[in-house]
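Please, structure for the following, as tokens.
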Amino acid sequence: MLDEKMWLLREEFEVLGNFLGGYFHQDMEPLEEVWAEILENANRESTTILLNDIDRFLNSNLSHIEKEEFIEGNCDLYFPAINTTPLEWLIQMQIEFKKLLPSLKD
């Protein structure tokens, strides 16, 4: 993906990009610990905002390849090591957040 297009997508999906880069960076802990940190910091409002951005991203007119490049370009996960693709991983994160949402405090 061209740098200019990636830059525009980072603006359009700022919440998602910040989430990916904020938690899934090169110095991150094992994924279980990252998820624990996410849960510790989660509240209903921020999770709803993130879910809205994930939904917009997944439902956008971007190609499958563009979506995967955006995810990979905003986080430092090595997807073959976790036996999934970037898009499958994000969809699983979306499912987990939707399950979590009812139990979160305002």
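The helical segments are 3-12, 14-23, 31-41, 44-58, 64-74, 86-100. The chain has one domain: 3-101.
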